[in-house]
Amino acid sequence: MLDKTPFYATSGGQSGDTGALEDNEHIAIVKETSKFYDINLSKIVVENSTVKQGQKIQAIVVNRNEIEKHHSATHLLQSALKMVLGDTVAQAGSLNDTSKLRFDFTYPKAMTEAQINEVEDLVNSMIARGISGDVEELPIEEAKNKGAIAMFGEKYGDSVRVVSFGDVSVEFCGGTHVKNTHDIGSIYITKESGVSAGVRRIEAVCGLAAIEYTNSIIKKYQDVQAELKNKDAISGIKKLKEQVKELKKEVELAQSQTAAPVYEEMIGDTKVVVDIVENGDIKKIVDDLKNANEKLAVLLLQAKGEKVMLVAGSKNTSVKAGDWIKTIAPIVVGGGGGRPDFAQAGGKDVSKINDAKAQALAYAKENI
Q: What is the spatial distance between Cα 325 and Cα 366, in angstroms, rounded to a whole number?
């Protein structure tokens, strides 16, 4: 504890200050500052030196500037949200540190992309205008008459601290702020999400964190360009999508050419097709066979890793596909069903697939 301290303690959503203690030479690192019984206490790390009671030291704050940028941006953000979403928006919590801001507010639904962009543009325009900041100690009624926004649920005394940025933002606040909105630099909203019923959250960066954010995006875009071997990333992605589309067509064609069933026979005037198919979409094969034949009973099996897929179809025959599948599927430890003209099932025992094929053919011969 210092008799007079420049270190701001964590409160009101603003992170506490860090820095150093010096006495001609470096004495200690200030890791964090918190408030205990309304006293600012700093947690310090002392290395190769001593700290004594009554010692005169120089206290140096190192993280304040970036925190102030995020805190002031939060005030501007609340004003912009009210402009875009309406005056029912109210603060429900906040966090400001050196690398980000987080603002929770009351709103019944997720913001649209257009609303998020409009809020971001509004805050950046407030920053670009270079609005001077003003801090006043006012009687609470005078502050209310001035239109200052109070934090819901907070208790205030007869005199309150009011932070203003022109007529854009006027709020009750005990934290530290930039002297001019120019100092914030710029803001980027990085995320909008839900916290609880009726409460939304915006996360954003400004100051040095905004520069790091934009640099990371530029780097990612450059990596995309390098991978695509195309300076126009959008054009390169469209080209890749067309290539994928063509390759899918080639694969489907190749599968259809290798997927024709090997075994088929005529039982009277009915074509019976029962086979194990290695490649292709057996549902499509069954449909194609039904379209190509007037009287058909077909049951196809296909091994898919450790499982078996079965599809049956019937057209103008006495064989009911649903009953056929229900009879054969248990052989491969499976089950399924369907309509008289189409049915499908899945099984778990690939080792029984040949037995299932034999039984399926026998069933067809018995029921036609």
A: 15
Task: For residue range 253-303, list pLDDT tens digits in order.
Answer: 776 655 555 678 999 999 999 999 987 789 989 999 999 999 999 999 999
Residue 230 carries which side chain, given as an amino acid letter? N
Q: Can you spell out the DSSP letters for 176-222?
A: ---SBGGGG--EEEEEEEEEETTEEEEEEEEHHHHHHHHHHHHHHHH
Decide which of 226, 245, 273 is a domain's last residue. 226
Mark whether 71 and 47 lie in a shared domain. Answer: no
Q: What predicted TM-score, i.e. pTM, was given to this entire model?
A: 0.67
Burial class (CB in 10 A: 0-12, 13-18, 19+), 302: buried
The reply to whether 133 and 5 lie within a common domain is no
Q: What long-range pairs does 289-295 form, CB within 8 A, spacing at least 24? A: 289/261, 289/313, 290/315, 290/341, 295/269, 295/270, 295/271
Number of domains composing the chain: 4
Bin 39: left if φ > 0, else alpha if -120 < ψ < 50, else beta: beta
Instruction: Write out pLDDT tens, residues 123-181.
Output: 999 999 999 999 998 888 888 888 788 765 567 778 888 999 999 999 999 899 999 99
Q: Could you tell me the two tokens for 299?
A: 């049951």
Give the Å distances, CA to CA, from 356 to 48, 280, 353, 367: 81, 20, 5, 16
| Same domain membership, residue 287 and residue 140 | no
77 vs 81, 185, 224, 315, CA distance in Å?
6, 14, 32, 67
* The one-letter amino acid at 332: V
CB 304 within 8 A of CB 296: no
Expressed as residue numbers, the domain containing 255 is 231-259
